Amino acid sequence: MTTAQPCPTARLAPAVRPAATADPVRWPDVAAVPPTAWPVRAVAASVVRHALRRLPLRVRFADGATLGLGGPLIEVHDPRAFHARIGAQGLIGFGESYMAGEWDAPDLVGALSVLAAHAADLIPAPLQRLRGVWAQRQPSAQRNTPDGARDNISRHYDLSNDLFSLFLDETLTYSAAVFRGFPAEPSLLPAAQHRKIDRLLDLAAVGEGTRLLEIGTGWGELALRAAARGAHVTSLTLSREQRELALERVRAAGLADRVSIELCDYREARGTYDAVVSVEMIEAVGAEFWPVYFRTLDERLAPGGRVALQAITMPHDRMLASRDTHTWIQKYVFPGGMIPSVRAVEDTVRDCTGLTVAGRDDFGAHYAETLRLWRERFTERADEVAALGFDETFRRLWTFYLAYSEAGFRSGYLDVQHFLLTKEDSAA
Prior knowledge:
By secondary structure, this protein is of the alpha/beta class. It has 2 domains: 28-135, no CATH class; 142-422, 3-Layer(aba) Sandwich (Rossmann fold), CATH 3.40.50. 44% of the residues lie in helices and 15% in strands. The chain is built from 19 helices and 11 strands. The protein has helices at 28-31, 38-52, 79-89, 91-99, 108-117, 125-129, 131-134, 146-157, 161-167, 189-203, 221-228, 240-252, 290-300, 316-322, 328-332, 342-352, 364-380, 382-387, 392-411; strands spanning 58-61, 66-67, 73-76, 103-104, 211-215, 232-237, 259-263, 273-279, 301-313, 356-362, 415-422. The strands form 2 sheets. A 7-stranded mixed sheet has the order 7-6-5-8-9-11-10, with helices on both faces. Helix 11 links the parallel strand 5 and strand 6 (232-237). It is globular and about 70 Å long.
């Protein structure tokens, strides 16, 4: 929750409070608690108390005070810094406080799942109505223009191929898998990823001779699997590191004659294709450019063709409430990202294209399992992450990100969909 600047006579907290481990150059907003007037901290503490005392959580503060109805434990080691960050930065401050080590939770996913399940009513209704006043706006520098999208994608996907390989399975697939049953064992993840890819390729009717456009290459597993079916694949990516490794994998598989991987924005795509597949790419497009994205699918798809789209979704009312708000995920993980609702996808397809939404299937519980396996592997290999040069603050950031995402799917706040879009063949 942000507030107006205090008057000159307001009593201020000390200017900064250095965090124990955060590098002030790499993590300036984590290394120092923002200077916050005591009334702001008091209001933040009141909002936190109001929210937490009604939840199935147990929140224990350093002085021994507790809140909540019982449930997963949250331990607040530094209440003053915790409330100051929330008062100054809202949910961004909540995440930064975790990165700084000012609070912890033995069952982080469990605690965050409770918060996600009550996201719509954590903040009192009067403050919700004033969201436009206190919530940070998305920075214009993160707009997904062609240049902005390249920068945004690079900040996440060009971190290090070695980093991603530490917690992904050998298919290097960074999206929801489809399991046969829960709980899933780590050894089952590669097969579950292939099951997901095959479902998408089947949905798009990809087979021998299919001209396939893939928007969002990842590390190339879908392109490899499509080419093995006999398809001719053109795959687009904005990540130089992903493209380099994907090309190596294509050459190693002996499929270079069937797969072309281009460093290219989706808006620059040319040609006509029998099928288009795009896996969890729309989340990086930004609401402003959803019409352009779907028009591109329409323009590139041949009459009678099919689009298979995998998309993370959120409730429509929460999407509308948060679409202009700058979030912790946007600041630290996916700059410029925006998760659509099912309704937003369907409305944009209807209003901006000649495509038809011919089918939809949701499987959010499978994403929760996928994220659990990634998170556990990331935790188990923390020393190897550190050996790559990623410091403790980064490791806490990614632990929070993976747990935060898993909690979103476990609570039902987030879902993931397979959409089938079709294009009428007027000649037929």
